[in-house]
Amino acid sequence: MNDLNSYARAREDFFLESLCYIVAGMKKQDIEKRIARQSNVSRAEAADRLQGVVNQILAALRGGRKTSLPGLGTFSRDPDGRAWFEREGGDDGAAKN
Question: Which residue from 45, 18, 43, 48 is spatially nearest to 30, judged by alpha carbons?
C-alpha cells in the first residue's frame, strides 16, 4: 500500500508541476533561460530557483493553502481536492487532476 501511496503522490506532483508550466504558457527550459538572462545567473541557478518556486506551490497546495503567481493568477484546490487555477482578472482556469 505504501508503494501505491508513493506512486499516487508522485503522479500528483508531476501533474501539478506540469500545470505550473502550462499556466505560464512556456516550457520549463524557456522559463529557465529567461530567469537566467534577466537575473544574470547561470542556467543551473535559474533551474534551481524555478524548481524552488514550483516546490513552494506544491507544498501550499498539499497543505490546503492558496498560492499566487503575481501577474498570472492563483492556484488552489476545489472542494473535491482537485487543483484549480484562476487567472488574474477573473478568467477561471479549468479544474485539473
Answer: 43
